[in-house]
Each structure stands twice: as structure tokens, then as C-alpha cells.
Design brief:
Helices cover 43% and strands 13% of the residues. The protein is built from 14 helices and twelve strands. Bound molecules: pyridoxal-5'-phosphate (PLP). Pyridoxal-5'-phosphate (PLP) binds next to helix 5.
């Protein structure tokens, strides 16, 4: 009998992907579908980065390289952490991986024993939960809501901690809510984290550059917890480099060594060519990508205003990333639909706009729209959603 391992059966197909598949099927039937379901910038990688990759190939950087990344790339990342985040990570505390996704799985596999608890504030990026399952950890979800700006409080964190708590994983700027923790808020959480010295926190800062507030914050900056924090970042979002597969982390050296060991058995070092390109990206002044951030800000304003005007949609203005996460429970309650999944499907089928239900991110009653699309497309999407929701509610 053909039977895969339980760990495969236990994994969920991300709803982000299943909505995209449905959207593609409709598009193949000739329907004009607007896809706001995927999490990638609609820009191309900047030329100066592509040139660095070509130069790398010409210089024959095409062989195996150190598992945790070329020393000159780790040096550049170390300087970037200092320059942009005021964080001190030496090059032996840095590991470069095949996307931040692999960085996160390295950390989980390095720290979590079967049955260890992993705290995951919701809404969360889907992979945190699934990767925790793969590491045989037990996820402990802390729910937030639009009322508290999608941020956990120190009291909530304290209440979720037990003797078995090993790790917490969260992102700021957050996917899917766009919320950003201020330094004060992180420092308040640090007070609680510091009470348990064998508790570690993975702070996922992959959307760092897509920040409309101008305020930078990092949990690892707090000296009370910097021995407990792993700071994850990568090039996919800020530099429009999703296909290059390059993520990295700064961490206490023993954790970096463990991740190096895990990675050496899975993939070895990430693509040598992507690494040469990454040097150009992290050495560049972040203002090089301001044109993308400015475009995202304009689009954020368009979708915030547009969605807010739809009756039953409650919108929090996102501070960063390129998603908006309206609370739509009122629409669900007033309609014949059962939940956010059915509403997302209804919007896909009737407005031909693909989104992702909040339940995919651990929070029912919300919907995520990505606004990494052209302004005209977003305006069209909003007017279709508005018409479709109006029709839905008029039928009831
Ligand atoms: N972390 C968050 C919060 C994300 O949204 C994503 C991608 O969607 C990642 C990590 C993974 O990024 P990468 O492309 O570097 O694997």
C-alpha cells in the first residue's frame, strides 16, 4: 500500500495556495480574475543586484561554498544589522539560508524537542504553524484582534508560557495584518521573556524595509533578551527577490552553529550566485528601494480608503508589509455565508478577486488582500468587491 509518513498527512495545504489554484482555474476558463492572494512584490529585482549576480558567475562563483554563507556576505550582513537595526551580530552569529523560510525551519529543528511548546501569536504566517508540526513541537496560539491592533500584550504572553515553552515566533511588520510593534511594546514583552532564560524568540523582520512609519524596532536590541532572540530577515520582500531564495539570521552563536549543522544535512549553502547578488543588496543604502516602498504606500492608501467605505468592513491602516486585513465578520453575520472561507470564495466567484481568508492565518472573521498590484488594478478590485458585497447583503 502506498502510504506517506504521518508528518506529510498532518501538513495542511496552505489556503494561500489553494485560493491561488482556484483563481488560476477561473482564469483558465477565460475569466478576468484579479489575484490579490499571493505575497510577492510586483516589482522586478533592481538592476544593480542582477549585475552583481552576473559578475559572480563571470568570476566563477559557481562551486560549493561554506554552508552558512560566504564570509564576505556574512560580513556585509553583520554591517547591515549594525547600520539599519543597531544590532551587534558578528559573522559567526550569522547563517544564510535558502529563503527566510529555511532559516525559520533551521531554528525550529535546532531548538524544539518533541512536545516543546512554541508560542505563535495570531494572525501568523502560515508556515510557522506547519513547520512547528514538522519539528514535532506543540503550537500555542495567542489570538489578537483588530481592537488591539493585532499585537499581543505582555499579560497575554505571560499567560501562555509554561514550563514547556521553548520558542515564540512572530513577524513585525506582520504578515497578514501589517502591524508593527514599537520598541516600547517590544521592550514590554522583553520583560516577560527575560523571566524564562530557556525561552527563545524568533523575530521575523522580513518586511523590515516595507515600513510606512519610519520607526525601526527590534526585539534583539533589548539587552535583557538579546541572548534569547533570533533575528530573521531576507531579500524576498524588500528587494523583490522572491525567486533568488535568500534569507538570513543573526542569533546567539550556539544557535547559529546548530542551524549550520542542520542546514549542512538538508541543502548546504544557498545558491552561490544568489549570495553574490545578496552582497550588493545588503550593502546598498535602503533608500535604493524607496521607489517600491512609496508605491506600496500609495496603494495602501487606496485600499484602506476603498475597503473602509464598504459596509461591514472594518479596516486597520497597515503600518508595513503589503497586505490589508479587514475584519469582515459583520458581513458574514448578515449574509447566508458560514465563515471567512466562504466569503473569500464568494468574492472570488462573484467579484473575480482572489484573497485569503483570515482563518488561514489563525484568525476567523478576517480576509487578507495583498496590495502588491498596480493602482488601477486595485481600484478595479475594490469596486468589484464593493458591488459584490452590496449584492450579497441585499439578497438576505
Ligand atoms: N516570513 C514571512 C512573514 C513571510 O510572509 C514570508 C513569505 O511570504 C517569509 C517569511 C518567507 O520568505 P522567503 O521568501 O525568504 O522564504
Amino acid at each position: 500500500m502506498k502510504r506517506v509518513a504521518d508528518r506529510v498527512d498532518n501538513l495542511e495545504i496552505p489556503k494561500t495556495i489553494s485560493m491561488t489554484v482556484k483563481a488560476r482555474e477561473l482564469a483558465e476558463q477565460g475569466k478576468d480574475v484579479i489575484s490579490l492572494s499571493l505575497g510577492e512584490p510586483d516589482f522586478d529585482t533592481p538592476d544593480f543586484i542582477k549585475k552583481a549576480a552576473v559578475k559572480g558567475m563571470d568570476e566563477n562563483y559557481t562551486h560549493y561554498m561554506p554552508v552558512k554563507g560566504f564570509p564576505d556576505l556574512r560580513e556585509a550582513i553583520s554591517k547591515k544589522f549594525k547600520r539599519d537595526n543597531d544590532l551587534d551580530y558578528s559573522i559567526d552569529q550569522i547563517v544564510v539560508s535558502t529563503g527566510a523560510k529555511q532559516t525559520i525551519s533551521n531554528v525550529l529543528l535546532s531548538l524544539v524537542n518533541p512536545g516543546d511548546e512554541v508560542i505563535i501569536p495570531a494572525p501568523y504566517w502560515v508556515s510557522y504553524l506547519e513547520q512547528t508540526k514538522l519539528a514535532e513541537g506543540k503550537s500555542v496560539v495567542i489570538e489578537t484582534s483588530i481592537e488591539n491592533n493585532f499585537k499581543i500584550t505582555p499579560a497575554q504572553l505571560k499567560a501562555a508560557m509554561t514550563d514547556k515553552t521553548k520558542l515564540m515566533i512572530f513577524s513585525t511588520p506582520n504578515n497578514p495584518s501589517g502591524a508593527i510593534y514599537t520598541q516600547d511594546e517590544l521592550d514590554a514583552l522583553a520583560e516577560v521573556i527575560a523571566t524564562k532564560r530557556d525561552f527563545y524568540v524568533l523575530c521575523d523582520e522580513i518586511y523590515e524595509l516595507i515600513n510606512y512609519t519610519g520607526v525601526k524596532s527590534s526585539l534583539a536590541k533589548n539587552p535583557k533578551v538579546n541572548e534569547q532572540v533570533i533575528t530573521v530577515n531576507g531579500l524576498s520582500k524588500g528587494f523583490a527577490m522572491t525567486g533568488w531564495r535568500l534569507g538570513y539570521m543573526g542569533a546567539p552563536k550556539w544557535i547559529a552553529d546548530a542551524c549550520d549543522k542542520i542546514q549542512s544535512q538538508f541543502t548546504s549553502g544557498t545558491s552561490s550566485i544568489s549570495q553574490r547578488a545578496a552582497i550588493a543588496a545588503v550593502e546598498a543604502d535602503p533608500s535604493e528601494v524607496d521607489y517600491m516602498v512609496n508605491a506600496f504606500r500609495e496603494r495602501r492608501d487606496i485600499v484602506t480608503e476603498g475597503l473602509n467605505a464598504i459596509p461591514g468592513f472594518d479596516v486597520l491602516v497597515p503600518d508595513g508589509a503589503f497586505y490589508i486585513f479587514p475584519h469582515v465578520q459583520e458581513v458574514i453575520d448578515k449574509s447566508h455565508l458560514k465563515d471567512d472561507m466562504e466569503l473569500a470564495e464568494y468574492i472570488l466567484e462573484n467579484a473575480l478577486v482572489a484573497s485569503v481568508p483570515g482563518s488561514a492565518f489563525g484568525l476567523e472573521g478576517y480576509i487578507r488582500f495583498s496590495y502588491a498590484a498596480k493602482a488601477e488594478v486595485l481600484k478595479e478590485a475594490i469596486s468589484r468587491i464593493a458591488a459584490c458585497v452590496e449584492e450579497l447583503l441585499s439578497k438576505e
